[in-house]
Amino acid sequence: MNKKLFSQIKNEWRSNIWLFVELLLVSVVMWFIVDYVYVQATIYMTPRGFDTEHCYKISLGMLTDKSPDFNPERAGRKVDEDVKELIKRLNLRPDVEAAGMGQNSHPYNMSMSGITVQIDSMLNDGYIYRRYVTPDFIRVFRYQGARGETPEQLAEMLEENTFLASDDVFLYSHDKKLTEYVGRNDFHLFGDTAKNYKLAASLVPIRFDDFAEPCNSRSMIALLDWIDSYLELCLRVYPDQDVDFMEKILKDSEKQYRIGNVYISGINSFKDIRRTYQQGRMNSLRDYLFGIAFLLLNVFIGLLGTFWFRTQCRRGEIALMKSLGATKSDIFIRQISEALLLLCFSTIPAVIIDFNIANAELIEFYNQTTLEAGRFIITVCISFALIALMMLIGIWIPARRAMKIQPAEALHNE
Q1: What is the b/e burial string over 248-285, where b = at least 16 CB atoms within 10 angstroms of the residue's CB?
Q2: pTM (2 decimals)?
Q3: Is the dihedral angle over the CA atoms 41, 45, 50, 53 positive or is it negative?
Q4: d(Cα 221, Cα 206) in Å, to the nearest integer?
Q5: In angstroms, rounded to a whole number, what is the distance separating the alpha carbons of residues 235 and 166?
Q6: Domain boundaries, the chain
Q7: In which element (H, E) is residue 129 found?
């Protein structure tokens, strides 16, 4: 049967050459689409390194000397004491699991600061986010250690002249994980080689948001050694207590959380912060996916029509095979085998084209590259499977209908 199949493909080369070209173009386009969707899905499903469920951001305000309640004795340096007292009272609430402060540190944040990390002759490449936080801030967002350290353990490790950092700080430039250097106290930060810092622990990479790659979100965490009202006050609520929490805080704010000149001016859930921060990106991604869906629909209709028409034209051949004793499965296998063989032939040059497109960096970057063996193989296999499925549907429906016709009737019509 295989010999006959190759002979038929060779004898029908005029029609098959156009089908070959069509499958070649469809394979390249399909791979391009699959690669984009694969990268976006992989990034989105990668662990974020933080947890914002049941978390809130509290905005603090300061009374001015124009307010009748302004206390001049609590101005200036007394502000940090008042803020610390406010955080202490929040931590004493039975519904609050942890409350902490940070500078440019919480997820879904437009503000950012950079830093350099150096040890021996190794210096980070790219941008390293700097996060100054109090120890409880780690508990709020549940950062995890690369060696399994819990948020509570990491919070205890954070002290003066120590820092925590993403495990991949040196991974892309020196192929080294930071876990190898945990405990060493000869790190240099900010480019200052006169002062040493100790790496207390390496962290599971903390992504900047849901769409940021880990390699573009590398960060370090150091102890926040000053407190002020303009910093980010974030807290986590126990899941079973997270019912109308914002209303409760605002209701209690005037009596319990007006300390000196400091007061709670507002509160936002990270569910809302996340949605607002990523709204533009979500809209853009939605538009891309609609465009991709429309393109895939056109590819499907094109392949469906091609193989539907091709199978319909072979009704006489199918009837003849059936009259010679071929079963329905024999006929279907014969038709799909020819189509898959043509797809395999066209996939070979398509893979070469795909490789050159990836090598030329004309597709989405992931892990700071466009060409990875695993990614390339997976996307090629997925695109091949999708095209094969479309061909299968395009052959199965008309072939099934053709096999219901009596052989004599089909041959008479021919």
Answers
A1: ebeeebeeebbbbbbbbeebebbeebbeebeeeeeeee
A2: 0.84
A3: positive
A4: 10
A5: 22
A6: 2-45+280-413, 55-277
A7: strand 128-133
Minimal CA–CA distance to 394: which of 317, 338, 345, 323?
338
- Structure-token match 């469809």, residue found: 26
Considering only CA atoms, which of 59, 52, 272, 78 is closest in space to residue 143? 52
3-state secondary structure of 268: strand
**128 phi/psi in degrees, rounded to 5:** -115, 120
Beta strands in 158-227 (DSSP E): 162-166, 188-189, 198-203, 219-223
Rg (CA), the chain: 32
Which of 79-83, 170-174, 259-263, 325-329 is least confident? Answer: 325-329
How far apart, in whole angstroms, are the C-alpha atoms of residue 183 and residue 180?
9
CA distance 226 to 81: 10
pLDDT at 139 over 60: yes
SS3 355: helix
Supply angle C-alpha 157, 159, 163, rounded to 5: 75
